[in-house]
């Protein structure tokens, strides 16, 4: 064993292996962002959808959807789930600042539909079979619920619909206040963590309460109805992804250069946007689940 450790090639393989484990390409909202999105959504479910979600969750979740909303990030590098790794994001052409399903929704090998909006459609249509009662054995409905819930968060994270060459900001290394980070991670996690530390005593429940308050009788109260508007799913998903790339261009990438330090100014102007995207993700996830599990005449048409 000692001689193995001394062998430089073994050390190299070990280092590369560790780097691979520690630095996966993209994450999606941090744990906190996904938890908030899913808690907000679960709080807005109508009785039928609430019951279906409870039935689909494994018992160790204790009825709490948010406890498993990060699961798709945890398994994306497992061999069995490698096919899911491109489903967390969309790469759009550099500087185009537009999103086009047929142009952009594919994996790195150009396989169509393998992106976050394609995945949301896929898992929504799988879940539509749930109310037929004949649990469709081709698909695992529990996994479909967890994937849908997670990807609705990801599509609202602006840098998840970013530019191709910088991997949605992952390749833009910079500093966040005093530590090393990258532009993608700033939007995934740093802004949420800094907000939690500065304003909520690191208490996720307090932040959640304030988001919900802003939805029920605060700054977003008048917007919620329009956020939820959705006849057919595909145009709605186009809208969410377009909103994200527009925000990525206007607020994410704008004026940011590799190697620089982002601090108070960036944080103060972007934090409200991050909170709004988390709120929108939650409201819209609830809308989809209510349509999927509610009365058929008010929901999406089931695919055959
Ligand atoms: C849809 O889900 C199935 C597994 O349930 C998977 O094989 C397929 O690749 C998925 N497609 C997309 C676009 O997510
Ligand atoms: C569905 O997926 C979950 C999570 O991977 C797993 O625990 C469960 O056993 C699966 N159910 C079936 C019927 O395969
Ligand atoms: C809630 O709204 C207030 C303005 O009324 C704003 O200052 C605060 O940042 C908002 N909180 C969140 C979490 O969005
Ligand atoms: Zn993700």
TrEMBL record:
GO molecular function: metal ion binding; nucleic acid binding; RNA endonuclease activity; single-stranded DNA endodeoxyribonuclease activity
Designated gene of the protein: LOC110424837
Keyword Signal appears in the UniProt entry: yes
Self-association and partners: Monomer.
Name the record gives this protein: Aspergillus nuclease S1
GO biological process, one term: DNA catabolic process
Organism: Herrania umbratica
Catalytic activity: Endonucleolytic cleavage to 5'-phosphomononucleotide and 5'-phosphooligonucleotide end-products
Signal peptide boundaries: 1-28
Keyword terms of this UniProt record: Disulfide bond, Endonuclease, Glycoprotein, Hydrolase, Metal-binding, Nuclease, Signal
Alphabetical list of Gene3D superfamilies matching this protein: P1 Nuclease
């Amino acid at each position: 064993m000692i001689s193995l450790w001394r062998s430089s090639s073994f050390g190299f393989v070990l280092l590369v292996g560790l780097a691979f484990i520690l630095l996966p390409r993209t994450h999606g909202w941090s744990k906190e962002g996904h938890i908030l999105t899913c808690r907000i959504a679960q709080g807005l479910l109508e009785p039928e959808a609430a019951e279906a979600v409870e039935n689909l969750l494994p018992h160790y979740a204790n009825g709490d959807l948010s406890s498993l909303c990060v699961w798709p990030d945890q398994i994306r590098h497992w061999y069995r789930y490698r096919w899911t790794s491109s489903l967390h994001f969309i790469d759009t052409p550099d500087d185009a600042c537009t999103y086009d399903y047929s142009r952009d929704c594919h994996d790195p090998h150009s396989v169509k539909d393998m992106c976050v909006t394609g995945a949301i459609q896929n898992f929504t249509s799988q879940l539509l079979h749930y109310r037929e009662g004949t649990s469709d054995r081709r698909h695992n409905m529990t996994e479909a619920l967890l994937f849908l819930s997670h990807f609705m968060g990801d599509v609202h994270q602006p840098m998840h619909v970013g530019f191709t060459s910088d991997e949605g900001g992952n390749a833009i290394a910079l500093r966040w206040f005093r530590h090393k980070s990258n532009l993608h991670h700033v939007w995934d996690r740093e802004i949420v963590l800094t907000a939690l530390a500065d304003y909520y005593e690191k208490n996720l429940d307090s932040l959640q309460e304030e988001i919900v308050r802003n939805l029920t009788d605060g700054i977003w109260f008048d917007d919620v109805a329009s956020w939820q508007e959705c006849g057919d799913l595909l145009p709605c998903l186009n809208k969410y992804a377009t909103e994200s790339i527009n925000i990525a261009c206007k607020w994410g990438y704008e004026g940011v250069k590799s190697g620089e330090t982002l601090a108070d100014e960036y944080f103060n102007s972007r934090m409200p946007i991050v909170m709004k995207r988390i709120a929108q993700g939650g409201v819209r996830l609830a809308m989809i689940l209510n349509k999927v599990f509610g009365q058929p005449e008010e929901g999406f048409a089931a695919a055959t």
